[in-house]
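Closing statement on the iron/sulfur cluster sub-project.
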Amino acid sequence: MSEGKKKVDNRRTIDPAALQVIDHNDGNGQVETTYERYVKMQPQCNFGRTGVCCRICLQGPCRITKKASKGICGAHGYSIVARNLIRSISGGTGAHADHSRHMLYALMEVLEGKAPDYKVEDSAKLKRVAERIGLEVEGKDDNELLEGVLQQAMADFSKITSETCKWLETTVVPERMEVFKSCNINPRSVHTTIAETMGQTHMGVDADPVNLIFQGLKTSLCDYICMHIGTDLSDILFGTPKPVATEANFGVIDPEMVNIAVHGHNPLLSEMIVRQAREMKSEAEAAGAKGVKCMGICCTGNEVLMRQEIPVLTNFLSQELPIMTGGIDAMVVDVQCIMPGIKAVSDCYHTRIITTMSHSKIPGSYHVDFSEEHAVEKAREVVNLAIEAYKEREEKTCNIPDIKHKVIAGFSMEAMEEVLGAINPDEPIKVVTDAIDSGQLRGVVLFAGCNNLRVPHDASHAHIIKEMAKNDVLIVATGCAAGTAAKLGLMNDEAVEKYAGEGLKKFIHSLNEANKDKLKEKLPLVFHMGSCVDNSRAYDFTTALARQWGVDTPKVPFVASAPEAMSEKAVSIGSWCVTLGVPTHVGVVPEVTGSALVDGIALQIAEDVYGGYFIWEEDPEKAAEKILAALDERSWKLKIHKQTAEKYETELSAGW
Ligand code: BF8
Ligand code: SF4
């Protein structure tokens, strides 16, 4: 049976809280959500699905078939697939650049005294970043350091000269830079490269699939650069995350509180809303509530979870459902991954959808025009709108699933080093490399990425996470993958006892023992490293492991997995993971299978050149096997290379 003919139903989730809301809606009302729209959308077009539909010029769409093996201009399927793919990488990079640039603007305003409600919260991080990018730090105050850091960040964003971007050069091992230079994919800057890619993929420019893909990889390195800038600047402005304890899933909605869901990606406003919500208790009490409670969706949620201990409400796919509990008074959105569908759902309830960014609006919603200059005032305006909505809430419509789980989060790289440092203060990362060398751990896996209705919601994440835990893999997570772990009770100490294999259990127990006077809570099964932008933290972990072993990253038993990838950002992140030497599992096959050549580059040629490669695997059981095999292959090779180097008293082999 072809993919388009498969039977689909609207219970495509394993989240019990989401299922309760869907079932209640089926019995009760007619609110349409993404789960129903997916059903209506079937069958989906296979030309688009496999990447062989070109709409780049106005003669299109050109679709590659047996009868028409080339586009009207003569473009082969491989050129069309490669162009579409790298435009997608460019879209993801553009979105991350948008986010990070906003952080940059905000800090520039802080420097100029135009954003009085913000200040540098983490001088130590500012100093560390300044030192890392090669600035002189001795005798300089925060403002001088900040100015230097921002100037360099601006250069990485937009310079047109050819010197290496600082956020790339200083965060990867030197061997990586050599590979980028030799393959001619060392980018000039983020904006320049996005523009190059759009130009190179215009009608009648580049038709060479390898050349196109390499440009795509160069673009993905820019995605990495601006994500790393975004993480660093957010830490400088709001503080570097430390371990926090809270809860996740719909049970965090408190019917006696004014409930505000913050949703999107950018922490600039959500941080302020969280702070103001705490201060506006009396206003909420005057309206008859006990106070104001904030909770997070998607990556804005991850940002305020990591730094402000704000509960997780849900992840991408189930974003419409909390409104249908009747308990959400306002859903405040900034940018990215916000379904326009939330507006129509909110029309059936008292919930106010509040957009906040001038370039991200939804018709018919409330709009609070956010500015750094008036951040507190704007945040108060948002909270007031929520309090007004609370007054209109009809208690009888509240139907909140009583499902929530304990969550331990807040594991920035600095926090990881602190935890590991309790065992080995001089070489914290050696605690992990020793555990891998001795076979106690099989490696490290990063779970990242979204949800996607092509596969049942949360199911692949949960299955593969449990398999990795059982097989003694140290697990870190970001984005909506972390959301799954939090919602389903995989991000706490109970999950360690329940799911970890003996080696992983021992490893985490020894960290708990060493940290017993430092940490309030025991360590979780899945270490939450932050939002999607914070995949930069996860890559810092890979780099740290590589440096500890003295090898290039393709030798490190570290695999990334995006079992439910959805967005263009996920495409760009996956691409830089591969370029930076990481085997990368994707559980939803991207739109490349229409060209065996492009598919082959992703699966095979990438490894020869960069050491990283893609693994497409939709079946979670098979995916777990393939991820473990990728880890084992690397551990085995590393061991052999080390033994050989010792035996012949030579350097460790540089190859992979
Ligand atoms: O940046 S994981 S659905 S929310 S894109 Fe979006 Fe995907 Fe979620 Fe965060 Ni990332
Ligand atoms: Fe068709 Fe070529 Fe135009 Fe693409 S660029 S739409 S393949 S004519």
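The pocket of iron/sulfur cluster (ligand 2) is lined by residues 54-57, 59-60, 62, 71-73, 75, 80, 203 (CB under 6 Å). With this model delivered, the sub-project is considered complete and its resources will be redirected to Aim 3.
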